[in-house]
Amino acid sequence: MKAMEKEIQDNPKIKQVIAVEAAAMIEAGWQSLFDKIWVFQVPTDVAISRLAVRNNMSYSDASSRISSQLSNEERAKSADIVFDTNRDASLVRKEIEDALQQLLSVSSKL
Fold it and tell me: How many other C-beta atoms can be found within 10 angstroms of the C-beta atom of residue 10?
């Protein structure tokens, strides 16, 4: 995170969109480093199932890990946009592309 912050500070004329995947950004209190925050969420039971399968872990272990994180509702409080990824991927992709296009449009006018 420090390297990214330094890069932006060293190039004050940057007027573009920089995307950073930071799953624990809100938990770490880094919101002030960003102009916009997009949150991607699924229902808790889906997150637990996905984590268990992806990491080959028990449902109980996955549940413990998910429950130690901020809830969807808590993350959403910090978000400018919330994407529900528990839908058809093409619908989610279209929603993201539309939001990105809007962001790029605003960014190009700065």
Answer: 8
Alpha-carbon gap, residue 46 to 30, rounded angstroms: 26
Mean pLDDT by 10 residues, the chain (110 residues): 71 68 83 89 96 97 95 92 95 94 75
End-to-end Cα separation, the chain, in angstroms: 24
CA distance 63 to 49: 8
Q: How many CB atoms lie within 10 A of CB 57?
A: 15
E-only strand ranges, the chain: 38-41, 81-84
3-state secondary structure at position 50: helix
pLDDT reported for residue 27: 87
